[in-house]
């Protein structure tokens, strides 16, 4: 255990950490916002917290695909943003938009030496962000209708679009309220989190 | 006679304007029967299948002048019909744009290009030249139909029907007394009431502390903060009931003598407000907004004898176990830490257990009086669960969803039950049977969320302080008179002499 602490962060390691964070973060959002029934989630220990991940095989598979792809793109530093869009199934209106901005230090390459930052410090930071995501339920407006989610990834213009992916618009919310959450950094990748939600039209 | 019947038959067969009695049903009749039990379009009455059901098929109604009754079959998928089965997967706007845009030559002046670029950046939030947005096609199966987002159900919970099994004892649904608590701070993280063994209820109202004598009903103002903008953040009675510890927003821990109504000590060691206090004979433990817990030995001048650093956010729940061996702490970082009473090797305090299962702030922390090492904890709005732990093994013995923010838990000494205080939407107190975790009763009355609970020294009454600026006293653990006599007999022999003489 001691060895891992002092290993430092490599580009590959950083990409894995951030992709993993996205996987757990998206699962938390799906659970907390009630997109999927809570009984389809199970508890796992991660980052020193008890987190909920889905047991639905299709959804898990879908998220795995995204996580794997994100790992690759993070390693190449070609991804700028990950967005979770929550929209009503019937009206296709976007109700909530979780935005994860990624700042990548392009000077980092695998042949450079690993950077100095302990795993523990990064874990602490990730833990704070995930706790904040959980706590947002206290102020986010209720999602009245059944909702579906979508994942958007902002990549560099010249990235080759892989099979199964297609181009899309930003899917902004009209008349939104935005809240910035904490951010965390691995010294190679920095992730800023914010959530935008539809302002209640009737006071 | 028969020839007339024959003639009538012949005539009947030859006439074409009456319905044929035994004919096979016409196509439109068959259709009507098929869709009969399902959606019944407006205007179809079962008695008249003829004309009206004709218009249930998709051919337009031929009767002029009749207002078009909206004919809709129940949509199987959102807004789908037989031409476009699933509207939500179509990209109508995109298709329309591509079909209708003219093939313009790209003749634009540089300024126009810049302007367009500026617009694009503004609209999209990023530079289209630098980045593009990708979406994984083929969305995963959505939640099964009929699944209603149950957070809505959760946050708009109505009255739950009473349990079918009658309680074996009578629990009054109205409070015994309602006391006014004006200016009480509506802050979830503070602990503003405590009941002493001498039957005084201490209540902190903003910057003052009042004592209410339960026996006589007398009210005394014990103290008022001198500095402006400083408020009381916690109160806690020492076991004997003659000293009261007071935590303030200016990070002080004060000790007051009740008899003389004087301040004995002002202990400063924290850097931020002291939201929670707990006594273990002469050791006073205080939890602060920084997440640190300090132990104070109130007998000596150098009072700050230990620091426990286990939380990264405000400590809102703090309770020593009844045997004084463990200290349980809950914080806004969703953690529950169980600390030993003695330092480990190396002189540092480290928790023997850390529980991370709660998804919200843990303010409700309570030790079971009849079972050693059993701890109950309750989570805030994001969590809403009550969990029972065995602190030796670290196992979660049971967890129950209370559907509402849990602010406090108290175990009963008279019954094998515990009571929890809640917030939105019903602001109720719930009595639970242990270990079956069934609801015994729900006490309603508060019109805003409950902030704190405390129990009377005889264990019969629970006082609840809420954001509606009232304190309500609930006589929910009243002992059966026969059982009471048995208990008193068992408790002390010497007082029985006094009883006899009084009689």
Description:
Chain A: It comes from Hypocryptadius cinnamomeus. Chain A: This is Mitotic spindle assembly checkpoint protein MAD2A. Chain A: Keywords: Cell cycle, Cell division, Mitosis, Nucleus. The complex is a heterodimer of chains A (203) and B (503). Chain A has helices spanning 2-5, 11-32, 57-75, 119-135; strands spanning 41-46, 49-54, 79-88, 94-104, 147-156, 165-167, 176-185, 189-198. By secondary structure, chain A is an alpha+beta fold. In chain A, helix 2 packs antiparallel against helix 3 and helix 2 runs parallel beside helix 4. Chain A is globular, with a radius of gyration of 17 Å. The relative contact order of chain A is 0.22. Chain B is of the alpha+beta class and 503 residues long. In chain B, 33% of the residues are buried. Chain B has helices spanning 2-14, 27-34, 50-54, 92-100, 110-124, 150-155, 481-491, 494-502, and strands at 131-136, 177-180, 193-195, 200-205, 208-213, 219-224, 232-237, 243-248, 252-257, 262-268, 274-280, 283-288, 292-297, 304-309, 315-320, 326-331, 336-340, 353-355, 362-367, 374-379, 385-390, 395-401, 406-411, 417-422, 429-433, 439-443, 450-455, 462-466, 470-474. The termini of chain B are far apart. Chains A and B meet through helix 3, helix 4, strand 5 and strand 6 of A and strand 1 and helix 6 of B.
Features of this protein?
heterodimer; A: 203 residues; alpha+beta; Cell Cycle, Spindle Assembly Checkpoint Protein, Chain A; five-stranded antiparallel sheet; two-stranded antiparallel sheet; 4 helices; 8 strands; 31% helix; 33% strand; globular; disordered N terminus; B: 503 residues; Methylamine Dehydrogenase, Chain H; four-stranded antiparallel sheet; 29 strands; 15% helix; mitosis (chain B); ubl conjugation pathway (chain B); WD40/YVTN_repeat-like_dom_sf (chain B)
